[in-house]
């Protein structure tokens, strides 16, 4: 790792990881469930490699991107992909302004251009929700060239040294499509699993400090059962979302556990049979 330590950004990797992780927990940030995952992602960022985070909904991909932003003290520009995403959403648009009594055409930089120029982090969420024909415009941004010719202005933009790209993907979800191989090969990929065990317990205690131990244990037992049913293919991955678990813990401070899980977890699923299965599992833990 000595070869990496040549920039101010890389120097941060020399700091105590325990101190950094504790800081992130205190800020409600991401905590890695896999040894070395957090460190390895940071190394990828230092090497100026675009990062692709693959994992189920609620596994903490967005929180991870925010934690990278906090770690390097770099602002983050977000792009939320959908079938409506177009080049203007990425690069910017022209608008008419009035200056000294004259109407002028001005170009407003989009998130990609802003992040490239200012050396910030570009976060592309649900990248496989975008139409495949939209994203090739980013190919030169994501490979060794780290540059872009803006088709709206003809401006040639070379990325700032600290510019970084983090993208997130939910594989196999409705409305998604496989990433183009030319696009996927520009990223280094990391699988992001759900938190579990003591790490999950620590995060719950930090984010919902008023929750008592008995309540937390009950909800974690239910969460473990939900994960098993997800692995067995009987529930959608969203049922084991850590985000949903946190919602249920927060609600359970003020209402019975059954209702908290109904609103925080079960009702988020479309399938009525899956909703019923969740509530049946709850009944095995809540008398």
Helices and strands in order:
Blueprint (H helix, E strand, L loop, with lengths): L7 H4 L5 H10 L10 H10 L4 E4 L6 H12 L3 E5 L6 H5 E8 L2 E8 L1 H8 L2 E5 L13 H4 L4 E3 L6 E3 L5 E6 L11 H4 L3 E4 L5 H11 L5 H19 L10 H10 L5 H8 L7 H12 L4
Helix pairs in contact: 11-12, 12-13
CA distance, first residue to last residue: 53 Å
Under CATH, the topology of the largest domain can be stated as Rossmann fold
H/E series: HHHEHEHEEHEHEEEHEHHHHH
Q: Domains counted in the coordinates: how many? A: 2
Provide the residue-averaged pLDDT. Answer: 85
What is the CATH C-level name of the largest domain?
A: Alpha Beta
Strand order of the largest sheet: 2-5-8-1-9
Number of DSSP-assigned strands: 9
Structural category is alpha/beta
What would the principal axes of the Cα set say about the shape? elongated
The unreliable regions are 1-5
Report the portion of residues in β strands. 15-25%
* Multimer state: single chain
């Amino acid at each position: 790792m000595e070869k990496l330590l040549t920039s101010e950004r890389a120097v941060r990797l020399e700091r105590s990881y325990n101190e950094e992780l504790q800081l992130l927990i205190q800020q409600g940030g991401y905590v890695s469930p896999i040894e070395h995952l957090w460190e390895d992602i940071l190394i990828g960022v230092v090497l100026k490699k675009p990062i692709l985070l693959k994992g189920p909904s609620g596994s903490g991909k967005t929180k991870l991107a925010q934690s990278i932003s906090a770690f390097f003290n770099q602002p983050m520009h977000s792009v939320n992909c959908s079938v409506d995403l177009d080049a203007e959403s990425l690069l910017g648009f022209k608008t008419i302004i009035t200056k000294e009594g004259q109407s002028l055409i001005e170009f407003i930089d989009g998130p990609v251009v802003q992040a490239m120029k200012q050396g910030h982090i570009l976060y592309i969420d649900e990248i496989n929700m975008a139409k495949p024909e939209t994203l090739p415009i980013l190919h030169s941004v994501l490979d060794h060239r780290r540059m872009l010719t803006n088709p709206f202005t003809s401006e040639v933009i070379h990325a700032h040294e600290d510019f970084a790209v983090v993208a997130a993907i939910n594989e196999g979800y409705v409305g998604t499509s496989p990433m183009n191989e030319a696009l996927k090969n520009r990223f280094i990929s990391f699988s992001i699993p759900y938190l579990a065990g003591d790490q999950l317990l620590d995060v719950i205690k930090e984010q919902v400090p008023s929750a008592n131990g008995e309540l937390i244990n009950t909800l974690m037992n239910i969460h473990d059962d939900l994960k098993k049913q997800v692995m067995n293919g009987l529930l959608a991955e969203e049922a084991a979302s850590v985000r949903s678990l946190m919602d249920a813990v927060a609600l359970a401070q003020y209402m019975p556990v059954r209702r908290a899980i109904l609103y925080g977890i079960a009702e988020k699923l479309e399938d009525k049979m899956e909703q019923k299965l969740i509530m049946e599992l709850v009944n095995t833990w809540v008398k």
